[in-house]
Design a protein that fits this description.
heterodimer, A: alpha+beta, Uridine Diphospho-n-acetylenolpyruvylglucosamine Reductase, domain 2, Enolase-like, domain 1, five-stranded antiparallel beta sheet, 12 strands, globular, B: alpha+beta, Aldehyde Oxidoreductase, domain 3, Aldehyde Oxidoreductase, domain 4, seven-stranded mixed beta sheet, five-stranded mixed beta sheet, 17 helices, 30 strands
Chain lengths: 327, 773
């Protein structure tokens, strides 16, 4: 690990101004950043501890929007009564991630920014365009069982690791950030970037901007929602494939559908093609299957991960069955 | 007697462990110590062109860097005592030249005042390589396979009886399949760790090792330092599973680095380094062929194993050895071939040979049973081996039929519908599977010292190790019974090379090897006490016969009249003695190299041998004729799995082991050992695999997020039963080792249960869900 300076910010403005120089990084839970620093993947010269900032609350706004402070711990969010009741998909996604100990430290803001677990990204001796732009991608022709099949490019096929983000993508969350030039809102789908030719850029967050909160807009039918995560071992592993599903069913028809996939995409993957199939269709297993086919229609397999395409389809069908009740 | 042995007492060191007071090898802080961090090669083959340490040297606290350019010269370790320690890479002395043979080869040690500074400085060392094309991948290099002459310790690995080919050709039923297992890593909780401190010519080493005396003799031979000036200590070891059985470069390098800078050095491998630099289990490709009658009697068995080793040592994963004895069959051929790859040298991994070997053999038996439309248990009974047909010897003790019977009853085998895919529970497919477990019951020479103090407590000393298995506890129990003392009054000291040499903690041999030596040493002390009392006018036992005197409750007394006797304290106080001690050495071995060399004159070993000539326990033990016997433990493992038919997730629902391992020394610890083996087997069957980059041969899965060991949520209900019939031949204690047998069989049993549930036979481990789609 490189030596670094450590300062505590007292308010958002202080944190933002401290970020002005290059090499400064925000630290909250530290569950991903510290690992990356130990392995010399992240080498900040200055850490700005924001744990003293007042961003730890979960509140329901008059219009029904739930506003989640960026420093809310993953575990606190997962077990929040209104989240459990109104957005089970989010609670389930959070609880499927990491371990209890990590969830007690990891924050919502940090989760939005967590970085891929592609093994080549973690091995500083291996070429990786995300870590060292222009060095090449070791995974494309290497061992790629856990890599992505959606949103890949010839520069990077790394999977986005978050479970929480998959649920938030389905819920259409909105991210609030504050920066030197003021505050702005970023719709969830516009927050994460696909690798394209510049996999080193992972989000549209600008240098010097601080995530302050995440809004979950009201969605009464989200009480019927589910997050299904499939992995090799029963706990403490990133997804091979996961699905977040929210269905609004009325009179045997699907009125509204929100679907997102994890473990298969280079970003939290809102499956709009599947949503199109589901919306307005008869609530049936056949519809689920058609939706799953659509969700993965643009998938591109690599040598060791072709199974993920079929697995993601089955995962989605399984999740749709659980929510839609048809089997 | 035998009042405490067998009882499920808690670990005597349990409190130390849970309060953090048990000192592991990295947990010492000699004055003036520096921290060493290894720099590893990042290529699998080539040469170092240049080492640039300028940036590293500017790090505050930097003390020094050692590489092939400035390291001391080493000697090849041929001079080491035979069987007393194995350096992992016989053809590659660490840091002696610029050649690179594998990813993760140690190329430099960077030393600094703090761990953080050493880590930082190590990360700044720039190494330029001349890269050569490495030999990567077993499957692509099969044309270079060859048959090694022997396995570890000269083990016979090519075996034949009858004519397996001819018998196969003419058999009514034929079966042939190929099974593959990946590279596995041991993943002990405690990484390899060493502290070395020189004081003049004296070398003190704390090392995470399964053999303190082995490390001592290797350090002596490789560094050219006198053995009697080297002390190696490993009081507690956080698991070894074989990875700490061989000595790896990190240990030698720490001693070299400490010498170079003339300060104590601590060097601990990181978790990532454990995946490249401290051994592994070899990948295997195994072909099993059976010929059988239509009634299921085996007429021919062939087991061909191809495994891989490094370019710097020849280690054979002896997967076929159990096939030579597990079933009755007149025509058997077992062969082993090796391919050399640019990977770190493989080494023993919990149940070396048997773990992958019984996977292949026992899945093949299951396949044969289905082919014959026969119950898998019945097929094993039809081919039950009453004797070891491979060695033409009788078994010292074998109760495997009872294991099958009890295991089947425990799992509810009778309720199993043999039709594949026929059983369901809710949405899940249900499968039942079983397999035979087996592991050799090894025993090696061991010596020990026993001391009884006038205050009525006893001490035992033996240079063996407790690698987390419970050796401290069961040896305390064994000694307590001989002395007639409660366990609180007996202190067993292990893990110090200064003590009389005990067996290394490998091959499931410690209990059977060290137990008799400790017992004999305690008996030796008792003999002395009895003689003292008999010839002491003031003793109530004066003039009585030795054979009429017993020990219990901290006293010696007449066998028939417990009131007539005295306490150890009374006797020793009257004699004016503070203590009475005895050395004992039991020279019994059933391993390949049968007789150990006599100990060098003047050593503690030699004194132990001399004293043992009149020790009745040693004499009785050594006079047992063991030549007609073959020593193996056996067991039966049954599992019930649930398989989600849509997502193919496999959940081991129940797992039962019934083990025939001789006398159970401590039911709690024995159960714990078998459970640990079963968990290892669940990982091996379903999760674990070390992946290599197909292009450059480097390890890809180098942490516990990428290399998946089972977690609690993967655990089934684990049930362990023991036959608990003492083995009268292996030793007076009657116990065979149990560290490894738990992982044999279970992997096949899970595989067989998945087949029963789904009708899909996956012959390539691990059985991950992608292979079931």
């Amino acid at each position: 690990m490189e030596p670094f300076k450590f300062i505590r910010a007292n308010d958002p403005r202080g944190a933002i101004s401290s970020m002005a120089g290059s090499g400064a990084k925000i630290i909250a839970g530290g569950t991903n950043l510290v690992d990356l620093m130990k392995l010399n993947i992240e080498k900040p010269t200055q850490l700005i501890d924001i744990n003293g900032l007042k961003m730890q609350t979960i509140e329901t706004l008059p219009n029904g929007t739930v506003r989640i402070g960026a420093l809310v711990k993953n575990s606190d969010l997962a077990y929040h009564p209104s989240i459990m009741k109104n957005f089970p998909v989010l609670s389930e996604a959070l609880l499927s991630g990491a371990s209890a100990q990590l969830r007690n430290m990891a924050t919502v803001g940090g989760n939005l920014l967590q970085r891929t677990r592609c093994p080549y990204f973690y091995d500083t001796a291996a070429p990786c365009n995300k870590r060292v732009p222009g060095s090449g991608c070791s995974a494309i022709d290497g061992y790629n069982r856990n890599n992505a099949v959606l949103g890949t490019s010839k520069y990077c096929i790394a999977t986005h690791p978050s479970d929480m983000c998959v649920a938030m993508a389905a819920l259409g969350a909105v991210i609030h950030v504050q920066g030197p030039a003021g505050s702005r809102e970023i719709p969830f789908g516009d927050f994460h970037l696909m690798p394209a030719q510049t996999p080193q850029y992972e989000t549209t967050l600008k240098h010097g901007e601080l995530i302050t909160s995440v809004d979950i807009p009201p969605m009464p039918y989200a009480t019927r929602s589910h997050y299904l995560k499939v992995r090799d071992r029963a706990s403490y592993e990133f997804a091979l494939a996961s699905a977040a599903v929210i269905l609004n069913i009325n009179g045997g028809r699907i009125k509204d559908a929100r679907v997102a996939l994890g473990g298969v995409g280079t970003k939290p993957w809102r499956a709009t093609l599947a949503e199109k199939v589901l919306t307005g269709a008869v609530n049936s297993e056949q519809t689920y299957r058609t939706a799953a086919e659509a969700a993965l229609s643009e998938a591109k397999p690599y040598k060791h991960n072709a199974f993920k395409i079929e697995l993601a389809k089955r995962t989605l069908v399984h999740a749709l069955k659980t929510v839609g009740g048809m089997s | 007697m035998n009042e405490i042995v067998g009882k499920p007492i808690d670990r005597v060191d349990g409190r130390l462990k849970v309060t953090g007071k048990a000192t592991y090898s990295a947990e010492y802080f000699p004055k003036n110590m520096v921290y060493g961090v290894l720099v590893l090669s990042t290529i699998a083959k080539g040469r170092i062109k240049n080492i640039d340490s300028r940036q590293a040297e500017r790090v505050p606290g930097f003390v020094g860097i050692m590489s092939y350019k400035n390291s001391m010269s080493l000697h090849f370790p041929q001079g080491a005592d035979p069987g007393a320690g194995k350096f992992a890479e016989k053809d590659l002395l660490p840091m002696q030249n610029n050649r690179i043979y594998y990813d993760g080869q140690a190329v430099a040690v960077v030393m600094a005042e703090t761990f953080e500074q050493a880590e930082h400085a190590a990360s700044l060392v720039k190494i330029d390589y001349e890269i050569e094309k490495p030999t990567v991948g077993l499957e692509g290099n099969l044309s270079s396979k060859y048959k090694p002459a022997a396995g570890m310790g000269g083990a016979q690995i090519q075996a034949m009886r009858g004519d397996a080919d001819a018998a196969l050709h003419s058999s009514e039923v034929k079966f042939e399949q190929t099974y593959t297992t990946p590279v596995y890593h041991h993943n002990a909780m405690e990484p390899h760790a060493t502290i070395a401190e020189w004081t003049g010519d004296n070398l003190m080493v704390y090392d995470a090792t399964q053999s303190v005396t082995g490390v001592r003799s290797l350090l002596s031979a490789m560094l050219g330092a006198p053995s009697d000036k080297i002390n190696v200590v490993a009081l507690f070891i956080g698991g070894g599973f074989g990875s700490k059985g061989f000595t790896w470069p990190n240990t030698i390098l720490t001693a070299m680095a400490a010498k170079q800078i003339n300060r104590p050095v601590k060097l601990v491998l990181s978790r990532q380094q454990m995946f490249t630099t401290a051994g592994r289990r070899s990948q295997t490709i195994q072909k099993i062929s059976f010929g059988a009658t239509s009634a299921g009697k085996l007429t021919s068995t062939k087991h061909e194993t191809i495994s891989e080793s490094s370019f710097v040592d020849e280690y054979v994963e002896t997967a076929g050895l159990a096939t030579n004895m597990l079933y009755s069959c007149p025509n058997v051929e077992v062969s082993h071939s090796l391919v050399r790859l640019n990977r770190v040298t493989p080494c023993p991994t919990r149940a070396p040979g048997e773990a992958p070997g019984t996977f292949a053999l026992e899945v093949a038996m299951d396949e044969l049973a289905y082919q014959l439309k026969m119950d898998p248990v019945q097929l094993r009974l039809v081919n039950y081996a009453d004797t070891d047909e491979g060695k033409s010897k009788q078994f010292s003790s074998k109760n495997l039929k009872e294991c099958y019977r009890r295991g089947a009853e425990a799992i509810g085998w009778a309720q199993r519908n043999p039709q594949v895919g026929s059983m369901r529970e809710g949405d899940y497919l249900v499968g039942y599977g079983m397999a035979t477990a087996t592991y050799p019951a090894n025993r090696s020479p061991s010596s020990a010292k026993a001391i009884l103090y006038a205050d009525g407590h006893a001490e035992i000393m033996c240079a063996t190790q407790d690698i987390g298995t419970g050796t401290y506890t069961i040896m305390t129990q064994a000694a307590a019974d001989i002395f007639g003392l409660p366990v609180e009054k007996v202190q067993v000291k292990l893990g110090n090379s200064a003590y009389p040499k005990g067996a290394n903690s490998g091959g499931s041999q410690v209990t059977a090897s060290v137990g008799p030596a400790i017992r004999a040493a305690a008996v030796g002390v008792l003999e002395k006490l009895k003689k003292m009392a008999i010839s002491d006018n003031a003793s109530p036992l004066h003039g009585h016969k030795e054979e009429n005197i017993f020990a219990s409750d901290g006293r010696i007394h007449l066998k028939d009249n417990a009131d007539k006797g005295e306490t150890y304290t009374q006797l020793l106080n009257r004699q004016g003695l503070q203590k009475v001690e005895a050395l004992a050495k039991t020279n019994v071995s059933n391993r390949q190299q049968t007789e150990s060399n006599p100990a060098a004159k003047g050593t503690a070993e030699a004194s132990a041998e001399e004293e043992s000539k009149t020790n009745p326990a040693v004499q009785e033990d050594e006079h047992v004729d063991r030549k007609p016997y073959s020593f193996h433990s056996f067991g039966a493992q049954f599992v019930r799995v649930l398989v989600d038919p849509l997502l193919n997730r496999v959940k081991v629902d129940r797992a039962v082991s019934v083990m025939d391992i001789g006398k159970v020394m401590n039911l709690k610890l024995a159960t714990n050992q078998i459970m640990g083996g079963m968990i290892f087997g669940i990982g091996m069957a379903l999760l674990e695999e070390t992946a290599y980059d197909p292009n450059n041969g480097r390890v890809v899965t180098r942490d516990l997020a990428q290399y998946l060991v089972p977690v609690n949520a993967d655990m089934p209900q684990l049930e362990v039963q023991f036959i608990d019939i003492p083995d009268p031949i292996i030793s007076p204690i009657g116990a065979r080792g149990i560290g490894e047998i738990g992982i044999t069989g279970i992997t096949a049993a899970i595989n067989n249960a998945i087949y029963h549930a789904t009708g899909k036979r996956v012959r390539d481990l691990p059985v991950t869900l992608d292979k079931l789609i």
